[in-house]
Design a protein that fits this description.
Order of helices and strands: EHHEEHHHEEE
Number of strands: 6
Radius of gyration: 16 Å
Largest sheet: 6 strands, antiparallel
CATH topology: Beta-Lactamase
Strand content: 25-35%
Strand order of the largest sheet: 1-4-5-6-2-3
């Protein structure tokens, strides 16, 4: 189910406040993100969740710059950014690779909130989730519109131990 986003009247003017809405994986518009979710389903096969060792960097190919791999630490008390794709580095102006979520919260709390909330959701529900939204007048954001998916890896019993985040960004908000 897609929720309606209320965007500013001008497609070039960023809204005052950032917002995101949960969307179904089947409602993802980006062909790249649809490709990545199909890979995730392939790695999963008949299992509830794929193991992060099932993930193939070679299969990600041209999509690799759009992905980040996040390791769940101590059942979700923290997260570690294991891999950060070049697209994320360009958008956020820095890399969080090798850093923990608590490190990011200390230096960029608004960005961290946009990353931690979906990670917590995916970890606790053990389900993939997708989002679409706009970034408001945030000094760290060099884009306006985004679409992202968060795909869990782990075991149905033991829980989620890694999350693959994939995202696409556009410089300006699309018109309503």
């Amino acid at each position: 189910m897609t929720k309606t986003l209320h965007l500013s009247a001008s497609p070039l003017a960023p809204p005052r406040v950032s917002s995101a809405a949960s969307i179904a994986l089947t409602d993802i518009e980006s062909g790249d993100l649809r490709d990545i979710t199909e890979l995730w389903h392939g790695w999963r096969g008949i299992r509830y969740l794929p193991s992060h060792t099932d993930m193939s960097v070679g299969q990600l190919g041209r999509h690799l710059p759009k992905v980040s791999l996040i390791r769940v630490i101590d059942g979700g008390t923290d997260y570690e950014f294991r891999v950060i794709g070049d697209t994320h580095v360009q958008i956020y102006g820095s890399t969080f690779q090798g850093k923990r979520m608590t490190d990011v919260i200390a230096v960029a709390p608004k960005v961290a909130r946009f990353l931690k909330t979906p990670c917590d959701l995916v970890r606790t529900t053990r389900q993939p989730h997708a989002f679409r939204g706009v970034f408001g007048q945030e000094p760290s954001a060099s884009f306006g519109w985004f679409e992202a998916c968060y795909l869990p890896f782990g075991d149905r019993i033991a829980g989620v131990d890694h999350i693959l985040n994939a995202a696409v960004y556009k410089a300006h908000c699309p018109p309503p």
